[in-house]
Amino acid sequence: MSPEPTRPAGPVHVLAEVLAGKRIGAFSHLTLAAPGVGERHRPGSFVAVSVGAPGERTRLARRAFWIHQVRALGGHAATVSLVVDPVGPGSRWLAGLSRGDRVEVTGPLGGRAFALPKEPVPVVLVGEGAHSAPLFALAERLRERDCPVHLLLGAADEAHLLSALEARRIARTVTVATLDGSVGVKGPTAALLPDVLRRSGAAVVYAAGPVPLLHAVARAAEDHGAWSQVALGVPTPCATGLCHGCPVPVVGEDGVGRTVRACAEGPVLRGDRVRWDDLSVPGDAS
Q: What is the rounded average pLDDT for all residues in the chain?
């Protein structure tokens, strides 16, 4: 695996402008002009968004969101796209923002993003719902390296399936699973993974999703003889590593168990290094 190319170092804190906001299925897609954030982005990094209008005395805790895409738009060299699932007061506030609104953003955050293969090898990307967001920028980087990209996307239903049309543009094959059968194959995402791995001949498996899916991906990749990298979407109270509120039990290179912080030593970790049975994820009423 090789690291991402050198980019400007460290996160920035900016007052971002909402350039566009649109509802697609169950999710709201926000495009932000956040100078310095997109330029520093690596697939698998995230941002912390301050919820509440700038200057308000009553503010909710910051919310962490995967960076979905980085694109040039208008006069902006690197706008940042976020996917918001409006399930709580903070995310509903964000989903209600309109063009021209301002929001405080810190990022990109995360100590470790996805590592890219040194050689062009087949890869499988697995994601569920809004958790799939970081896989799209990753797929574009992998295509630039001539890696055949195979996407496996899952969701509860069609409304919660993220960017299926975009997926078909950036991947060689796309396999879709929904629990209610409204689109694609009916059933859990993980059930389709062994067949996708077999057909693709994947050397590396990347995943972003809820913990049970990531655990299944790590196990299936090991059975297949592939490396796995998983983006842990666990709640990150401070998003900077200061509060130690996002512990992840892992096994180090020396075989000794230890605890790392998802936001600082992650959010991307090797799937075979996470002690999945010991990982406890608190609820997140975003």
A: 92
